[in-house]
Amino acid sequence: MKASQFLISTLKEAPADAEVASHRLMMRAGMIKKLGAGIYTYMPMGLRVIRKVEAIVREEMNRAGAVELTMPVVQPAELWQESGRFQAYGPELLRIKDRHERDFVVQPTSEEAITDIGRQELRSYRQLPKNLYQIQTKFRDERRPRFGLMRGREFVMKDAYSFDRDLEAAKRSYQQMGQAYRAIFDRFGLRYRAVAADSGAIGGDVSQEFQVIAATGEDAIVYCPDSEYAANMEKAEALAPAGPRAAAAQAMTRVPTPGKATCEDVAQLLGVALTTTVKSLVLATDQHDDRGNVVKTQVWLLLVRGDHGLNEIKAGKVPGLDGFRFATVPEIEAHFGTKPGYLGPIGLKQPVKIVADREVALMADWICGANEEDYHLTGVNWGRDLPEPDTVADLRNVVEGDLSPDGKGRLAIERGIEVGHIFVLGTKYSVPMNATFLDEDGKPKPFQMGCYGIGITRLPAAAIEQNNDERGIIWPDAIAPFTVVLCPIGMDRSADVKAAAEKLHDELAAAGIDVMLDDRGERPGAMFADWELIGVPHRVVISDRGLKEGQLEYQHRRDTAASKVAVGEVLDFLRGRLAA
Amino acid sequence: MKASQFLISTLKEAPADAEVASHRLMMRAGMIKKLGAGIYTYMPMGLRVIRKVEAIVREEMNRAGAVELTMPVVQPAELWQESGRFQAYGPELLRIKDRHERDFVVQPTSEEAITDIGRQELRSYRQLPKNLYQIQTKFRDERRPRFGLMRGREFVMKDAYSFDRDLEAAKRSYQQMGQAYRAIFDRFGLRYRAVAADSGAIGGDVSQEFQVIAATGEDAIVYCPDSEYAANMEKAEALAPAGPRAAAAQAMTRVPTPGKATCEDVAQLLGVALTTTVKSLVLATDQHDDRGNVVKTQVWLLLVRGDHGLNEIKAGKVPGLDGFRFATVPEIEAHFGTKPGYLGPIGLKQPVKIVADREVALMADWICGANEEDYHLTGVNWGRDLPEPDTVADLRNVVEGDLSPDGKGRLAIERGIEVGHIFVLGTKYSVPMNATFLDEDGKPKPFQMGCYGIGITRLPAAAIEQNNDERGIIWPDAIAPFTVVLCPIGMDRSADVKAAAEKLHDELAAAGIDVMLDDRGERPGAMFADWELIGVPHRVVISDRGLKEGQLEYQHRRDTAASKVAVGEVLDFLRGRLAA
């Protein structure tokens, strides 16, 4: 490809609304162009990256035996009413009425459409397992689209769906997709982690996220440097501390803590470690009648150590807490007799269920609110000052240095960007949509399904968050818009440079290398700056001076200096660099 | 590819709403699946065809120097308000409100979005010409979607847009696209015609349709078997007859024609040729004031020979008739004193402008309505019975046997399906959207644009309309879902057949041939019927009996019988057939 036949449109400045590096750099490198909030044109330079991502995903999906199809972008609402999602989905679901006032949606995912295809096409167990996927435009009407392709409204996703006879088979399909995903992410050339994620109602180890590591990532990833353990923050288990509870050493004491409504403030006031304090969180669960009216409310007190954070996913798994909400201030005052900030498990006005985090359950001589404004209790001890907790559970987010759940070391935490997610759906869609096949016994059974996504247009943004510097993007070879850029110096003045540059371009192209010849006639500084911004990993400079010595200059985007390569050896040299 | 790893879903019966062969066969062959009215999933078998069409289009567009990008499916209404199309477009434009009640559209084409990109990215004449294209999902909310992919609501189109300095350069870009289109359509392996189409306000020879020839096509294509002339019906010129007008031979006579309100009926009643009658068509043009109120209406009488049809595009080009409408019955009665069916140019109540078709202007002794119910006039002659017409123009559709406008023979007519269209847009979008570049003289000038479409998902349907028989589809090699199908007989019983089939599959695949091995274990009759329905052009049958003789059976989808090929020669044999 020659620059004169392409569309290169770099910008000096990123638009003011570009908050993160990938957004700024994709805009400045002319890879995307905003058409509306969260809606971008994939410009020629950006589209090349997206196409390379697509090609890798397609190859590996096909290799794993998945079959490609394309479902419509605009889908009739009827299917979404069958699954219940037309009602349940929030305003992120873009709803449309057509000319006949019939309801449609713009697909955010395609579970309903694929389940409809499955129930029509997959009639017999003999046709199973089957994995169908598409690489197609999606739309989610985000309330606050931002970060460019990272959280756009229109985006491209690869979404695959597996159909199986039973849950065991579905788990095998899931495992196969896990392998395919590792092959895909290995090929992207990015640092990533496959982390266990919460698998909701299915339970077990059947949900993984593929996270591209980046300091700017939205997600916290928990891993053990000494083992294979990796999970997202929602999922990562906090083990119970080793050893028994210490014996009580202090008497329980009511201490004034005027205006100190947080554990941090109380610990500071009393000159004690934050780890001696206990945080009180008040939840509620409602029972409904057939009409949906609340007929009974149970209030719960959850206790976690002052320096720990509540993990709401874990809280929702405590028996009885499924579907909880945070209690209202009137509910809190009715049960505790005071306002938030001074709450505790002792001296309640009305009974509440008490759930202690594993850590809290083993604490002695701890500090909590006195259920009286501006007072806390110190030296509190289970058994002596209050009954043992109704329930002990893992309620908290892990922190750096916690024991790894596999017992093989201590946990570390880093940031990631979720770019892939695989999970077993079970019968979540097949049962409400009555999607069944005839099993070997002649009886209809609902499909056990799985669902496997990759954010095709998000991946380039994640790659940039991981790989950039002050000069611009640094693409891994596999998804670079061009692998090699040829920068001739003074091509318009020197016939030698022009001839050498064009010859090399044709030679590399014929060898199957994705090469760009910058024949725009830009000055060297501007030309180099453009390609460093765009992030092409390999650069070859052709100049009269070099040619006189029979040499070209090679520099990798990460190199600090150029190295000389004999003209005749450039192809072999590059092949070596690309294979590396 | 092996059938067991694919999704084959042929149907015995097509759904009742499938009216045309391509719709029926694509449904029966499992290529598409209806999700809603005019909305289809491209099933794996159909998607393979679409991807091959896309690949050919992409290769030739790139070869022609066009650059690919992807514009959003969901587009903000603001741009469409700038161009005026948000108001002007009918209900075919699918309009959406997002969660913030802002207006959006689902793109039916992307002139606005590309013009917006052009005005931002193409600042200087040095960047011109530039041709940008996308292959992307479109939506048109057809009132009555039908014929499967032929007139769906959601579809995939390749749309390209050129930007040029001036109209001459735009015409060169248009010519280059014409060449690229011929290369593309040649590669599809279909019979097609590039026909001149009406170029609207631009004028000149700057609009062509690419029509796939098919007896079931919606469009009439006019061509000259003895020359290169080809045009669509709207555009094809009807030459004036050779020679002067004959002298009047009859006296004008008022004859009773009770209840005979059509030329056909009158000619039959009077026992004369239909070619001696003249049809009267009454049009009107309105003048509006600034508020859009009609302030003046001009009534026009258009005269075409009784056996000819009015061409409304041509009528609209008569000076003064731009934007005409058909006159209302009250308007007709006010000017002619009678109701439609007995109208004519003689004895008007109020003046009308008379436009005669070239043919009519040279007629003598003709028949027309007497402007009196149940009466016609015979023996009417220009100059003697009424003044010469105000205007003489080409008003009619050509008919088979008319002289070719290039003077090289006579016209023939066949049916076609429009699959491509190229035309010069001029400044239709650049002026209202203020899309300018700085020309060499330093002054801003609006782009001269061109627009080039190919119906990617319509092409397979057109290919089928052209190539099918009672057994199913017959694909050209270039766009077949698979080029070769291997049909082993008794693969599940015979280890020899299985080994030979799998070896051949691997051999052909390694040679880059797109081969399908049907390893489903179907009986020969059902297996052959499936692949004849699906339309794979080349079939190789592997059987025990054949293998004993060292032979396989080859049959092209159009062959009436199979021919034997030695096992060791199959690859070379197929290469020869595929090259042919």
Q: How would you characterize the overall build of this protein?
A:
Chain A is an alpha+beta fold and 580 residues long. Chain A folds into 3 domains: 7-237 and 413-464, BirA Bifunctional Protein, domain 2, CATH 3.30.930.10; 253-393, YbaK/aminoacyl-tRNA synthetase-associated domain (YbaK protein); 482-579, 3-Layer(aba) Sandwich (Rossmann fold), CATH 3.40.50. Chain A contains 15 helices and 31 strands. In chain A, strands 3, 7, 8, 9, 10, 11, 12, 21 and 24 form a 9-stranded mixed β-sheet that branches. A 5-stranded mixed β-sheet of chain A has the order 16-14-15-17-20. Chain A has a 5-stranded mixed β-sheet with strand order 28-27-29-30-31, with helices on both faces. In chain A, α1 packs across α11 (458-466) and α2 crosses α6. The two termini of chain A are 24 Å apart. At the A-B interface, β1, β2, α2, β3 and β4 of A face β1, β2, α2, β3 and β4 of B.
